[in-house]
Give the backbone structure.
Amino acid sequence: MIRQLPAAVNEHLVAVDQLATNWWGLVSLIVMFVLGPSVTVIVTVWQNSKTRNRVGGVEAQVTNGGSNLADTVGRIAAMVTEQGLDIRGLRKDIGGLRGELRAERAARIEDVARIERGRRSGT
């Protein structure tokens, strides 16, 4: 038993049936079924080639042919730690120099004050 299609579906089928009866209909069919998928394929291939190039660049930087990446990172971490210790030592040295400078300044001020007191008492 064949079922009857609703009227809206029948109208739609008629519209599709009449789609290619003029040039605009033919152009729209060509665009939908030929150009659309072609552009999709071209864009996909282009994106894949760009991705392949980027992956190739990353692979060239991270290959195991050179030094192991983990070893390199470990060496860099050790250098940074060593530099941190060096900077800490420099800070201690500078702090010591500042303390010595304060002591020298206080001694100089005391010497100047002693000389001034000696001049006043001697005259």
In short: The chain has a mean pLDDT of 81. The two ends are 139 Å apart (CA to CA).
